[in-house]
Amino acid sequence: MSRLANKFADLKASGRKALIPFITAGDPYPEFTVPLLHEMVAAGADVIELGVPFSDPMADGPVIQRASERALSHHTGLRKVLSMAMEFRKTDQDTPLVLMGYLNPIEIMGYEDFANAAQRADVDGVLTVDLPPEESEACVSLLRERGIDQIFLLAPNTNAERIQKMDAVGSGYLYYVSLKGVTGAGHLDTADVEQKLQLIRQNTALPVGVGFGVKDADTAKTIAAIADGVVVGSALISKIEANLDDPQQARHEIITLLKSMREAMDV
Amino acid sequence: MTERYPQGHKYDMPDARGHFGPYGGIFVAETLMPAITELNEAYQRYMQDPEFIAELDADLRDYVGRPSPLYLAERWSRELGGAQIYLKREDLNHTGAHKVNNTVGQALLAKRMGKTRIIAETGAGQHGVATATVAARLGLECVVYMGAVDVARQALNVYRMKLLGATVVPVESGSKTLKDALNEALRDWVTNIDNTFYIIGTVAGPHPYPAMVRDFQAVIGREAKQQCIAQAGRLPDALVACVGGGSNAIGLFYPFIDDKSVKMIGVEAAGDGVETGRHSAPLCAGRPGVLHGNRTYLMADDDGEIIETHSISAGLDYPGVGPEHAWLKDTGRAQYVNITDDEALAGFHALTRMEGIIPALESSHALAYAMKLAPTMRKDQIIIINLSGRGDKDMHTIMQREGISL
């Protein structure tokens, strides 16, 4: 059983939902990242999505775009992110770590080299925004052989047939993007999400994380009531952006926000 | 559009999922998948619909001004002392470039699909103008994304788009050029997917765009082939076209792919020179990767990050290239070469002075390569150059480069 499957099984057994923070690796500078990952775990994170910076983040809104630009200004590319993952794993053998990003860095490294490197770094999952299931077989099979889950995105306009496709190819969990748009945009419509989750659950037994629009403890609590996991990204990265001259303050605000979410979700 | 190639047309790329060998495909975020499926169904259906084709052909004739002439550049050919050079005069189209062939087609498709809002990306502004033009004609809302750097260097086209009623959004992210405009247009599309049609201007993007844009641009090659046979009595020996994303080149090449005696040469922008790293020549100096929805040759570093491109011509300033060009390169059916900024300028001046035709800087890359090629060929041989656009939009760039002020 993969670390992700274990984690979701444990959470289910204890009646809790996964808190899944997303941050962009290397934002605002490389040394900031790994200590923050540990602190996020201490604050109640169950799974971590670590963003691999990309020069052309087509599905991301301005907040994560700028995070990628800050990270790339210090040359935090895929190789560097893999080394961060390895460093994190040295002192945390328990928390699943998912690399989230775009396909081109993986293409340029080569699928097999990437799969081997991800295995060496003991990465648990890979979420590639621009790799739909139809094109994913070559990459997914190499990851699967190495016990690494491929996580797929679901959108509000994804139909039952496609959900079944993701269910067949994906593992670990599915990530439901709760609104049409880019990261960091708009507001959650809980009734919509709830309705969509029904359709998703009819077509997959995989755990479902929900993200896009989770901003505070209240939204986290609302989503936790209906989903298996709550993904929060832009709201955390906004804290970095608001405190570029004081990274310690950014760290403090991120941890405070996560703790408040954890608390609200566990009530 | 198979019915347009009644006999002997055997090349049948791409496959049903948009693959040209390993290239092409559909690499997009999940939210776009339903829209792409819907578009693909509409494209497959209407390209077989005689009524749609008749409407398209009438628009190309009466609105665009087709067929465009195939012009023998006699004086220039004599001067170069080799092959006879024919120019396919896409510069004479309404709006001044080949781009309108495609926007007319996609706009008709948008109308058939009931979309009320059009978005587009643009580099030099030619595609933006061509999109704003058809949107104005059909009364559709139009938003054009354009890199802030390009907004500055193509101010005239920005004004034209605004006159036509389009909203021009300067894109400040990344390198602030065409690739970033494409990113922003994709973000808009994801957000407004229900009512919005994205008119991509080149043969890139997720399937069906590379095939669809090619099919709309293939009118260039179909006409050129007929005209060449009518005027010169035979097929040409070589086709030469500039390649940024590659739509004018594919438009010229496609109807000749099965005519193996016809050489096809795509000319990429070498900027300061390929050896300097400051260029826009992914086929000559890049590597395969995935960007903007398809697998193709790209300019990327060892981490897979996209490298900033350089070219005097905004329309060629793009780090990728249409996936069909990647396939034609790998199979050897087409050759890809490159021309520097300085060489392109020499081509620009040569045509202007020798033939009284002021070409676009993009097309000037093809002209400059033909200046090298023609003298190596016999006088009874024929080159067709795709004169993809006119140079009015580039006056400012050229004056600046050559230190001239009015």
TrEMBL record, chain A:
SUPFAM superfamilies: Ribulose-phoshate binding barrel (SSF51366). Pathway: Amino-acid biosynthesis; L-tryptophan biosynthesis; L-tryptophan from chorismate: step 5/5. Its EC number is 4.2.1.20. GO terms for molecular function: tryptophan synthase activity. It catalyses: (1S,2R)-1-C-(indol-3-yl)glycerol 3-phosphate + L-serine = D-glyceraldehyde 3-phosphate + L-tryptophan + H2O. Keywords: Amino-acid biosynthesis, Aromatic amino acid biosynthesis, Lyase, Tryptophan biosynthesis. One of its GO terms (cellular component) is cytosol. Pfam families: Trp_syntA. Tetramer of two alpha and two beta chains. PANTHER family: TRYPTOPHAN SYNTHASE ALPHA CHAIN, CHLOROPLASTIC, TRYPTOPHAN SYNTHASE, ALPHA CHAIN. The alpha subunit is responsible for the aldol cleavage of indoleglycerol phosphate to indole and glyceraldehyde 3-phosphate. Belongs to the TrpA family. This is Tryptophan synthase alpha chain. It comes from Methylomonas denitrificans.
TrEMBL record, chain B:
SUPFAM superfamilies: Tryptophan synthase beta subunit-like PLP-dependent enzymes. It catalyses: (1S,2R)-1-C-(indol-3-yl)glycerol 3-phosphate + L-serine = D-glyceraldehyde 3-phosphate + L-tryptophan + H2O. GO terms for molecular function: tryptophan synthase activity. GO terms for cellular component: cytoplasm. Its EC number is 4.2.1.20. It is an enzyme of class 4 (lyase). Pfam families: PALP. Its cofactor is pyridoxal 5'-phosphate. Pathway: Amino-acid biosynthesis; L-tryptophan biosynthesis; L-tryptophan from chorismate: step 5/5. Gene3D superfamilies: 3.40.50.1100. Residues 65-389 form the Tryptophan synthase beta chain-like PALP domain. The modification N6-(pyridoxal phosphate)lysine is found at residue 99. Belongs to the TrpB family. The beta subunit is responsible for the synthesis of L-tryptophan from indole and L-serine. Tetramer of two alpha and two beta chains. This is Tryptophan synthase beta chain. It comes from Methylomonas denitrificans.
